[in-house]
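Colleagues,

For the teaching module next term, I've prepared a clean inverse folding example: a structure given as tokens, and then the sequence designed for it. I'd like students to try predicting residues themselves before seeing the answer, so please don't circulate the second half yet.
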């Protein structure tokens, strides 16, 4: 084939998307304030107007001039009415600001991965309440509307949404607005949080914990699962099959995660934030002059700001879990995370197999967040005389939070405290 012909053929192979777009004016309306436009050969007509220093446009979804003109004029008069009300036609939607907030590296670096993940989950819930809402419309009235709407609904378990959850919703919205003012120079005033009233008072119930007996059942079952997985994997290696290989490391890591998170009363996000470089072995000198091994950790906690990590100490079975995990991961680098897997599904499956997933007294379900509550309660069982101020420093919370949400000792255990004996003292 002639080279000239080949060259001509290549020139003809121009993707339609790269062709120059032709915009033609079909007609003008209202003395030139509106123009009806057609892009290329698309029969659909567009309307365009110049308002507040910028062009705005709308797709009329009509192909005839008469029908498109009516829609364009109604649209134009609505825009003029909004301008008279003081609305800005060019300010971003609140949803647009949230999406930018969620991908901002400075936000990701300032909180733990778990907390940042919670931001995204919270927005998935709140987004339907902010469709087509401009940032300037997020006022105190709007926040009160969000509060009332959320309070009238239920969560995914069918139970009423707590005041604490609603407070976090409002806090998230205001955090995004503050970020928009600081980073996007939004000319808005961040509204105050609505005041609680009536049924919006804090409901003082905590996440379901595990009793000492239940806790032993959970840890033994988790260890047995890891051991069984190891045996099954060995059998697979002896007799290769086409089936899915058993993930032994994930099974063992779940076991270590359970012990470690409980032993340090760690929030789930705090546990996942830990790198090897954030952990160091130490020895605590107790008031009775005995030494107790511990793991000092630097966590990205609930109260971390600007990526600044908080001090924590992992005790009890968490120390041995750390040593075993370290032995299995000798090739890890200092900045590698301790826990590489999401253990929520595996933990949920484990609890369901033990009939411990749902707490019968409250109807609430247990998950990895229950490990923190259990860790605090086990410390209270082991040492009922520990000052609450020391306890709150250890688990990075307040005395009020401990009293209202974390101290869930069974009444019999509380009676044992008063008598000077503990459940743990009889079983050790």
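(Answer key — instructors only)
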């Amino acid at each position: 084939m002639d080279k000239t012909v080949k060259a001509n053929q290549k020139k003809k192979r121009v993707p339609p998307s790269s062709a120059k777009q032709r915009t033609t004016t079909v007609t003008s309306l209202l003395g030139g304030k509106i123009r009806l436009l057609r892009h290329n050969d698309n029969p659909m007509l567009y309307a365009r107007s110049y308002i507040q220093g910028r062009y705005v446009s709308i797709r009329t979804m009509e192909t005839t001039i008469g029908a498109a003109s009516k829609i364009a004029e109604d649209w134009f008069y609505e825009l003029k009415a909004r301008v008279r009300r003081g609305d800005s036609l060019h300010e971003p939607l609140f949803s647009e600001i949230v999406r930018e907030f969620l991908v901002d590296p400075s936000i990701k670096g300032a909180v733990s991965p778990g907390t940042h993940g919670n931001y995204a989950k919270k927005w998935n819930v709140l987004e339907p309440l902010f469709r087509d809402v401009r940032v300037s419309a997020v006022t105190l009235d709007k926040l009160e509307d969000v509060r009332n709407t959320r309070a009238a609904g239920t969560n995914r378990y069918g139970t009423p949404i707590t005041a604490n959850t609603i407070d976090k919703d409002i806090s998230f919205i205001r955090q995004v607005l503050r970020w928009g003012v600081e980073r996007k120079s939004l000319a808005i005033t961040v509204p105050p949080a609505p005041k609680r009233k009536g049924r919006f008072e804090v409901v003082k119930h905590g996440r379901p914990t595990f009793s000492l007996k239940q806790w032993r059942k959970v840890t033994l079952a988790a260890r047995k699962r890891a051991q069984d997985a190891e045996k099954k994997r060995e059998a697979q290696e002896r007799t290769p099959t086409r089936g899915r290989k058993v993930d032994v490391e994930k099974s063992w890591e779940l076991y270590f995660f359970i012990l470690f998170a409980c032993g340090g009363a760690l929030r789930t996000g705090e546990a996942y934030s830990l790198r090897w470089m954030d952990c160091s072995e130490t020895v605590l000198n107790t008031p009775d002059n005995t030494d107790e091994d511990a793991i000092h950790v630097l966590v990205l906690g609930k109260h971390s700001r600007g990526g600044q990590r908080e001090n924590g100490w992992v005790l009890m079975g968490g120390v041995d879990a750390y040593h075993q995990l370290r032995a299995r991961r000798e090739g890890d680098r200092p900045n590698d995370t301790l826990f590489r897997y999401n253990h929520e599904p595996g933990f949920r499956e484990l609890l369901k197999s033990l009939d411990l997933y749902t707490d019968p007294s409250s109807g609430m379900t247990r998950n990895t967040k229950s490990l923190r509550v259990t860790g605090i309660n086990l410390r209270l069982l082991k040492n009922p005389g520990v000052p609450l101020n020391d306890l709150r420093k250890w688990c990075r919370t307040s005395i009020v939070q401990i009293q209202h949400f974390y101290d869930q000792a069974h009444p019999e255990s509380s009676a044992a405290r008063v008598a000077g004996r503990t459940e743990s003292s009889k079983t050790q």
